[in-house]
Design brief:
The protein has six helices and no strands. It is mostly helical. The longest helix has 24 residues.
Length: 119
Amino acid sequence: MDSNKLTDLIGVVQSFCEERDWDQFHNPKDLSIGLITEASELLEHFRFLSEEDARDKLAAGKTREEISDELADIFFFLLRFCQMYDIDLGNALKCKIAKNNRKYPVEKAKGSNRKYTDL
């Protein structure tokens, strides 16, 4: 996603919240709680399922829409946090990928899901 589109989406979230006077409720702690709560709601759809059953849930219908809604809720809180506290998410991701490139060099990490301390 290019930064202009991300900036547009942040603006949509900001307008939605400001129209409702929600700035007062969006401190770092409460936005973090919202983010993890929505991530937990996403997890509920897949808990105790096999990989095949989890993929089947994404195939179509109401469940796929519910999963999409949870992902959108997660994205909402992430964008709102970035907007409220002036975090450039695109730049933060690029910096984190650079750090991860050092932690997980291809020659050690390829095909492995082990933590960098165990490579």
